[in-house]
From TrEMBL:
Residues 614-771 form the tRNA (32-2'-O)-methyltransferase regulator THADA-like C-terminal TPR repeats region domain. PANTHER family: DUF2428 DOMAIN-CONTAINING PROTEIN, THADA/DEATH RECEPTOR INTERACTING PROTEIN. This is DUF2428 domain-containing protein. GO terms for biological process: tRNA methylation. Keywords: tRNA processing. It comes from Corvus moneduloides.
């Protein structure tokens, strides 16, 4: 579509609804329609810009990664249009039909929108934002910087900035906009480097390095370096990794002048000409100092100076900084780099030996190396000894055992495992970088042969002596790179190192290992996987072949007669290694050429007398099955995808097929001593059952499988018969299915006296059921083609009667009949119905079908009969059959009732509204008696779940349904609420009870039910707490959607319900911030129903809106319908975070050692600061609308008197502490404050200006003189009352747009957060900085402290 988007009133309204709908795909499609255009120089219209400004702030916290990526792609297209159209305007080449004045307006609008988007992105990076908002903001910032700057990207072929980009940048900056690289923006991105997630840290670092000026300002660089130094010593892994990212970023953004100013180690300062070498020497010195502390006291080192932070910093600085790689290739620096790398490898070798030895009660690098990993008990004892030594106590003073790991125990474990993991990653990355064939050969090797051999021993030690999977996995990634670099190097000496490691490993595997029994041989198998994965994929793999052949030979060795159950047997370890090789992603299909002997080995191992062998064999079989069959069957667009057929499988692996067939024939061969167990049989059947049928012929390789599989129908083991039936399906080509079904039907006994074996009859029925189910699913057999089969079954109808004494056979026969509903004659169909009715009728009358005692399988038979009755009633929609099913449901037989309820819940009768209506009425009619009896919690749960399923659509409730509850609705509601309040039914039953109570309340409550509504609301409030389980929060949200909207609408005409309505809306506001998407979606349904006009009845066709749109609509509802109620203001104040900043600062002053783990937040998705920003204008409007002296004003003044002065005192205290240097500003980000402290620190949005705090003055405060007196912020001598302090610590922090009363208590991250603009988000999100005039003017006077 060329030109501007044509939007009439109706189309615009429809597009706006699409942009606000709950479905992400619809929102993205509407966004794409706004952003895309065939011509990249087509400007965005004013309407399109307005829609984007409304859409983006509401979609920043979406938790879908794909949505974020597609949002960025769409906005990139919009920004390209804005950029190219603006350049065309500046060149005087405006699109046709554009006037001169209009063109100038479009240019100003484009500049203004980019500025607005920049400020929105920066504001969303405040510490109070959640991960989703930060990630989206960074992606949008990437789109802005790569589109609207003149930064050249050498690694990109397309997407470079236009040559005339400088003209547009000059125009924008003259307008006071596009100051992308301002110091506040820089500080905000630097604060992201301390985020707890590596995605945010890495993306922020990439932005800083790629787009911002080449060097940091010196004061910032010095402060960052000190912060990085401190953070590297944190025991918390995330904080130490943040310190490593800081170090890497400082290295990339520093020059020689800054390097001289840094507090580097003396030896490192001598190599200033090479910044990378200088930094690496400094970090190595830090690591060696930390290692020295650890040798003296490992407990103290783990708490104050763990080594993993310094190792991670070395890895990032050496491997991820391009300038460092260039420095390594400088001829004059090669000796220095060789010396440093040798010292580095030596140091990490000593650290590895020390840490692993410490976990084995061995100290120092010279300790004897144990051949295998210690047991967890041995590690626990060793760590206990270290803790006692660190505390200065003896072993005799050791406290009693505890089931929980102590803080000290966790500190030592984390220090050891994470350091070992980082060492593996560092050494592997160094080998990959420095042994690349692309490096010039004349420079000589930076990693000398002895150094490489030393690194090899480090890897061997970690993999042989380590049991922690995280450390093993991280080390394995590095060792794989290490081996690949050596094997692909032209030097034969280097190629020989991995081969020697493999031979040593195979030799060590052959002997007994002094270790406790391990399920997967600890890290030992990864040693082999890393070596063989390093071979070039395009070449032959001699190491892989040698390894597998040796392992197969070892695994087939006979077990000793008296093996020790406490030791790892070599045969068991060989199986574990083979399993690891099969699962290895790096080997791909290279192991499949060895699949046949490995499968034979696994099947043989299933029959081993040794448990460890059987355990390892089943794991190897599972790995082989996954590798052979590939991805499991998937369904896309409702259609099953084609899987691997048996014919294709045998064609790919003919030898394997022969081996499987041989095992099947052995299992089905007659034996003289009676039936024998075959341990491998079920595994083979499981493999075959996962294949798909395919086109075949009688002479195909799959034909021989048919006979053994049919023979397994007589197996005395039920599980074998059931799995053989499933395995038969792929062995029968679709054209032969009809003939085999007829053959199986003819083998069924025609009379009671002809039954030869009940097992055979049952097996044949299971095979028929499997073939028919497969044919029904694929539509391969028509009703006409199945008529001969149906005739044979009709002749054997006695199998359904009590004359067949086995209930399981009768149930299987009925299941077969269920799959042929249209192929039988009417008479036989009636015969089936009569037989089942008689059986169930006699059962309900107390009979037992001719048996004096219950039989095995009788419950299965009765449930199958009940399912058949339900299915036939739904298929035929016959009133008599429907009435019969309802009658069965009312009978007190638990098996039949549970069967019908489970059939309803499964939705099998969803196509027949008559059945659903009748069953729903029956459930309602019996609800009171069921609640009174309450014989079984599971039955009650199923009963309520079925009831809710039948009335899941509000339109399904009828007047007849209400009449069924005539007189019992209140009592049922009372009993359901009693279940929720007084009993402890468990979360699942509580969910159903609360939703069922909401269903009854939605369709019946009057003025006399006010007490029940109050109790219902209180139950919802209890279940909606963020500390409760997801199931209960979902129940609260769904109950709100079911009945809450009706209560709120009723309150508009019933003042007594207004307090309840406010509580419900308050609850919905809380649930719309829940961390579970499903809970938020249910709560948005409640908000969507209330978006309709209050005077209109609730419509069934309501469009559910996106969560943030629903939140906005609820706030507008409060403002418009409940603004005069005094409780409205108080209910909103509950969402405003009130923090004790003074206690936080005092805690930081105490400088206590950081604990290893932070206290988990109950809801990591919620954003109190962002919510406060949205509530702020609503609170102000409530105050402005209320007349003076109203209860609302009194309530606001009471709150202000209680909280305002303390907040202002806290701010003054923080300002005093910062001015005295008592607490570092950056440390507030580490405090337990989710919102306010981060927005007061310079790293976050802490900018204020007198023009943005007008309502702090007496003439603007909605509370009048009294409120303004409390709101007035103390100011320093020599500064006017309205001015902003130069250090950015004014009362209106966080972008500081203050509205009304106690503004300091209502911080929110403004859109100008961290930007020179300083404008609050409340104004910019509504109109944007240039929405009307299109002109951006620089806001003067805004400063920021370093």
């Amino acid at each position: 579509m060329a030109g501007a988007l044509p939007l009439g009133d109706e189309a615009l309204q429809r597009l706006s609804r699409c942009l606000g709908t709950r479905e992400e795909g619809v929102r993205l499609a509407a966004l794409s329609l706004l952003c895309c255009s065939p011509n990249t120089n087509q400007p965005l219209s004013g309407t399109e810009v307005r829609l984007l400004q409304e859409f983006l702030p509401l979609n920043l916290n979406c938790d879908s990664s794909s949505f974020r990526q597609l949002l960025q792609a769409a906005m990139r297209k919009a920004l390209v249009r804005l950029r190219d159209s603006s350049l065309a305007q500046l060149r005087g080449k405006a699109p046709r039909g554009t006037g001169q004045g209009e063109g100038a307006g479009q240019l100003a609008q484009a500049v203004g929108f980019v500025e607005w988007l920049l400020q929105l992105s920066i504001a969303s990076l405040s510490p109070g934002s959640n991960y989703q908002r930060k990630k989206t903001a960074l992606l949008l910032l990437v789109a802005v910087l790569e589109t609207c700057t003149d930064t050249w990207s050498p690694d990109r072929k397309k997407g470079q900035p236009p040559r005339t980009m400088a003209t547009l940048l000059s125009y924008a900056r003259q307008s006071g906009c596009w100051d992308f690289f301002s110091q506040p923006n820089l500080l905000v991105l630097l604060s992201c480097l301390q985020d707890s997630t590596n995605e945010i840290r890495d993306l922020a670092s990439e932005l800083l390095v790629r787009y911002f000026p080449a060097t940091f300002p010196e004061p910032i660089a010095l402060a960052l370096f000190q912060l990085a130094q401190d953070t590297l010593g944190s025991p918390r892994v995330q904080e130490a990794e943040a310190g490593a990212v800081l170090m890497k970023t400082i290295l990339q953004k520093s020059d020689s002048g800054i390097m001289k100013s840094l507090s580097l180690e003396a030896e490192a300062a001598l190599t200033l000409p090479s910044r990378g070498l200088c930094f690496a020497q400094h970090l190595l010195h830090v690591l060696q100092a930390q290692y020295k502390v650890a040798c003296q006291d490992l407990l103290r080192a783990a708490a104050t100076a763990p080594m993993h932070g310094a190792i991670a910093a070395l890895r990032r600085c050496l491997l991820q900084v391009p300038d460092v790689a260039v420095s390594m290739q400088a001829a004059e620096l090669v000796p220095s780099w060789q010396e440093l790398l040798t010292r580095l490898v030596t140091t990490v070798r000593d650290i590895t030996s020390f840490l692993l030895g410490a976990l084995q009660s061995q100290q120092g690098p010279g300790a004897d190396e144990q051949a295998a990993a210690p047991s967890f008990a041995e590690m626990g004892n060793a760590i206990g000894s270290l803790i006692m030594l660190g505390k200065g106590r003896g072993q005799e003073e050791e406290e009693g055992d505890s089931i929980l790991l102590s803080e000290e125990h966790s500190l030592i474990l984390t220090c050891c495992w994470v350091s070992v993991k980082e060492i593996g990653l560092l050494l592997g990355g160094l080998a990959e970088l420095l042994l690349s064939p692309a490096l010039p050969a004349e420079l000589g090797p930076l990693l000398l042969l002895p150094t490489l051999q030393m690194a090899t021993r480090v890897f061997q030690e970690i993999l042989l002596r380590c049991r922690h999977w995280g450390a093993v996995e991280g080390c394995s990634m590095g060792f794989t790179k290490f081996c690949a670099a050596l094997l692909n190097h032209p030097d034969p000496e280097l190629q020989a190192i991995p081969r020697a490691v493999l031979e040593q490993g195979l030799e060590a595997l052959s002997g007994p290992r002094s270790s406790s029994v391990t399920r997967r041989a600890a890290g030992f198998p990864m040693l082999f996987l890393c070596v063989v994965s390093g071979e070039a994929p395009a070449q032959a793999r001699p190491l892989l072949t040698r390894c597998i052949q040796t392992l197969l030979t070892l695994a087939t060795t006979a077990l000793p007669q008296d093996w020790d159950q406490t030791l790892d047997l070599p045969q068991v370890c060989a199986l574990h290694v083979l399993q690891t090789l099969v699962r290895g992603a790096g080997l791909g299909g290279a192991v499949l050429c060895h699949a046949t002997p490995m499968m034979a080995l696994a099947l043989r191992g299933l029959g081993s007398p040794c448990w460890a062998m059987r355990n390892a064999a089943i794991q190897l079989f599972s790995a082989l099955t996954s590798r052979l069959l590939g991805q499991p069957w998937s369904h896309r667009d409702g259609c099953p995808s084609e899987g691997l057929s048996l014919h294709a499988f045998l064609g790919q692996h003919p030898k394997l097929g022969a081996a499987l067939l041989g095992e099947l024939r052995v299992a089905t061969a007659p034996t003289s001593g009676g039936p024998r167990l075959h341990p491998a049989l079920h595994a083979i059947l499981t493999l075959l059952a996962q294949l798909q049928p395919g086109a075949d012929s009688p002479s195909s390789p799959s034909a021989p499988f048919l006979g053994p599989l049919l023979g397994l129908a007589e197996s005395p083991i039920y599980a074998v018969r059931a799995m053989a039936a499933k395995a038969l399906v792929p062995a029968v080509p679709p054209p032969q299915r009809h003939g085999l079904l007829l053959q199986l039907a003819q083998q069924l006994p025609a009379a009671p006296g002809q039954t030869r074996s009940h097992n055979a009859v049952h097996g044949h029925l299971l095979q028929m059921r499997a073939l028919l189910a497969s044919a029904t699913g694929t539509g391969g057999l028509s009703a006409k083609a199945l008529c001969p089969v149906a005739l044979q079954l009709e002749a054997r109808g006695w199998l359904l009667t009590p004359a067949q004494r086995c209930p399981l056979v009768r149930a299987a026969f009925l299941q077969v009949l269920t799959l042929l509903p249209t192929s039988f004659s009417p008479g036989f169909t009636q015969y089936i119905h009569d037989t089942i009715s008689a059986e169930l009728g006699s059962l309900l009358q107390g009979g037992r079908s001719g048996c004096t005692e219950p039989q095995v399988g009788s419950a299965t038979l009765h449930q199958t009969m009940a399912h058949f009755m339900c299915s036939e009633a739904a298929r035929l929609a016959d009133s008599e059959r429907i009435a019969a099913v309802c009658s069965l449901l009312q009978q007190p037989n638990p098996d039949i009732q549970l069967a019908i309820l489970s059939w309803v819940i499964a939705g099998e009768g969803g196509t027949c509204k008559e059945v659903e209506s009748a069953l729903g009425l029956t459930l309602l009619e019996s609800l009171r008696s069921v609640l009174q009896e309450r014989r079984d919690k599971e039955f009650l749960r199923l009963y309520l779940e079925a009831l809710l399923h039948l009335y899941r659509d509000p339109s399904s409730w009828s007047q007849e349904a209400s009449s069924k509850l005539q007189g019992s609705s209140a009592s049922c509601l009372e009993m359901l609420l009693h279940v929720v309040e007084a009993e402890c039914p468990g979360p699942d039953l509580l969910f159903q009870a609360l939703c069922a109570a909401s269903l009854l309340l939605a369709h019946r409550f009057g003025d006399e039910d006010g007490a029940l509504v109050e109790r219902w609301c209180a139950a919802l409030e209890e279940c909606s707490r963020s500390t409760w389980s997801e199931v209960l929060r979902l129940a609260a949200a769904r109950s709100l959607q079911m009945a809450g909207a009706g209560v709120v609408r009723r309150s508009l005409s019933c003042p007594s319900l207004v307090p309840v309505a406010l509580r419900l809306i308050n609850m919905a506001i809380q649930l719309l911030q829940d961390e579970e998407r499903e809970v938020r979606h249910e709560a948005s349904g409640f908000a969507s129903l209330l978006r309709q006009s209050p005077g209109e009845p609730l419509r069934d066709g309501c469009i559910f809106v996106q969560d943030n749109v629903g939140l906005q609509s609820l706030l507008q509802l409060l403002l418009g319908e409940f603004g005069e109620h005094p409780e409205t203001f108080n209910s909103l104040l509950q969402h405003i975070p009130i923090l004790d900043l003074r206690s936080v600062v005092e805690e930081l002053e105490a400088n206590k050692a950081a604990s290893l783990y932070k206290e988990d937040e109950p809801n990591v998705f919620a954003e109190p600061a962002v919510l406060a920003q949205q509530l702020l204008p609503v609170l102000v409007q409530l105050l402005e609308k209320a007349p003076a002296g109203s209860p609302l004003h009194a309530s606001a003044l009471h709150w202000l008197e209680a909280t305002g002065p303390s907040v202002l005192r806290d701010l003054q205290y923080c300002k005093h502490c910062w001015s005295q240097g008592m607490v570092s500003v950056e440390s507030l980000g580490q405090a337990k404050c989710p919102c306010a402290p981060g927005q007061l620190c310079p790293g976050g949005p802490c900018h204020t200006h007198s023009s943005f705090t007008p309502s702090l003055h007496r003439d603007r405060c909605p509370l009048g003189d009294e409120g303004a007196g409390l709101c007035q912020t103390p100011h320093s001598p020599g500064r006017a009352a309205g001015e902003s302090p130069a250090d950015g610590t004014g009362a209106a922090g966080a972008g500081g747009r203050c509205h009304g009363h106690a503004r300091a208590g209502l911080w929110h991250p403004g859109v100008g957060a961290g930007a020179a603009a300083g404008t609050g988000a409340a104004g910019a999100a509504r109109a944007g900085p240039c929405a009307k005039s299109g002109q951006c003017t620089r806001r003067a006077g805004t400063t920021h402290g370093d």
